[in-house]
């Protein structure tokens, strides 16, 4: 009898309101984050409102964790249902905060630079894309940035390929097209003129726009390819531009290293006896 009453009281006891609100806040923060990402992907607003919206989502996630902690304390003291809702809120919030936390760690361990180039002495220039960038961000920052880049990303170097500049330009265009970057300007190399490609790349999650320029010049045994990738906003790129330049040049190098395939030789066509005219047989 006593066990039945106790079970009935546990069933009828409402769950913790703090736990329910922790779950609600976590779900709402996730929806706000998805909204911010969607706005940036569609290009509906400028970057500042997007960052404010995403920052609000992260703040809501932190608040949801605090509410869940308070719910755990009250459940520990008073008992009752609701632990599952609090755990759900914590899990959703931690999932949302995980990637920004990783970016924060990257920002702490990497130098505060956002403009990467293989040639800091004579960096490739943004020309057409420069009109889309914020004011005073198209010029390369200078040798101080180059020193930070050299220490953090020593593998960012010019690419020398043993193919003609025109072939190197075609290979670069193939890789850029394969990566689905938006090309804004492209000029193939000509006698006395270097090859030039300007494109816009998007970050994989938030869809932030980073500007890329590729320059192709003739070299002694082929062509030299220089690249530059720069973010439009912020003070650091979390290593994204260096990774982009290295991956781009590696793919171009792999494509340029493929030997030319010989053209397939067509087998000789056998004459059709039905279509071959027959010689008249001389009568004796």
Gist of the model:
This protein has seven helices and six strands; from the N terminus they run ααααβαβαββββα.
Question: What would your notes on this structure say?
Answer:
With 284 residues, the chain is an alpha+beta fold. The protein has helices at residues 2-12, 17-42, 47-78, 83-109, 143-152, 165-178, 240-256, and strands at residues 115-117, 159-161, 182-187, 195-202, 209-218, 223-231. It has 2 domains: 13-109; 115-256, 2-Layer Sandwich (Alpha-D-Glucose-1,6-Bisphosphate, Chain A, domain 4). It is built from 7 helices and 6 strands; from the N terminus they run ααααβαβαββββα. A hairpin with a 7-residue loop joins strand 3 (182-187) and strand 4. The longest helix is centred in the first third of the chain and has 32 residues, at 47-78. The model is unreliable at 1-6, 261-265 and 279-284 (pLDDT under 50).
**Number of β-strand runs:** 6
CATH class of the largest domain: Alpha Beta
Mean pLDDT metric: 85
| Terminal-residue CA separation | 129 Å
Q: Within the CATH hierarchy, at the fold level, what is the topology of the largest domain?
A: Alpha-D-Glucose-1,6-Bisphosphate, Chain A, domain 4
How does the overall form come out from the CA principal axes? elongated
Helical segment tally? 7
CATH architecture of the largest domain: 2-Layer Sandwich
> How many domains is the backbone divided into?
2
Q: Give start-end ranges of low-pLDDT stretches.
A: 1-6, 261-265, 279-284
Provide the succession of SSEs.
HHHHEHEHEEEEH
């Amino acid at each position: 009898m006593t066990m039945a009453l106790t079970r009935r009281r546990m069933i009828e006891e409402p769950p913790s309101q703090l736990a329910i609100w922790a779950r609600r806040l976590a779900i709402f923060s996730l929806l706000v984050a998805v909204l911010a990402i969607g706005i940036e992907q569609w290009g509906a607003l400028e970057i500042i409102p997007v960052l404010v919206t995403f920052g609000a989502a992260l703040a809501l996630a932190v608040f949801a964790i605090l509410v869940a902690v308070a719910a755990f304390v009250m459940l520990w003291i008073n008992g009752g249902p609701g632990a599952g809702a609090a755990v759900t809120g914590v899990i959703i919030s931690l999932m949302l905060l995980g990637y920004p936390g990783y970016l924060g760690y990257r920002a702490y361990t990497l130098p505060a630079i956002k403009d990467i180039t293989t040639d800091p002495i004579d960096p490739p220039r943004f020309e057409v894309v420069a009109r889309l960038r914020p004011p005073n961000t198209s010029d390369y920052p200078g040798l101080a940035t180059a020193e930070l880049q050299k220490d953090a990303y020593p593998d960012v170097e010019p690419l020398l390929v043993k193919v003609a500049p025109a072939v190197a330009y075609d290979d670069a265009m193939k890789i850029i097209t394969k990566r689905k970057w938006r090309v804004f300007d492209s000029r193939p190399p000509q006698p006395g003129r270097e090859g030039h490609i300007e494109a816009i790349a998007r970050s994989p999650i938030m869809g932030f726009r980073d500007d890329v320029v590729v320059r192709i010049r003739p070299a002694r045994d082929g062509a030299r390819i220089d690249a530059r990738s720069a973010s439009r906003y912020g003070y650091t790129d979390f290593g994204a531009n260096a990774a982009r330049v290295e991956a781009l040049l590696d793919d171009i190098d792999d494509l340029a290293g493929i030997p030319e395939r010989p053209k397939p030789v067509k087998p000789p066509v056998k004459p059709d006896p039905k279509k071959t005219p027959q010689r008249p047989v001389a009568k004796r």
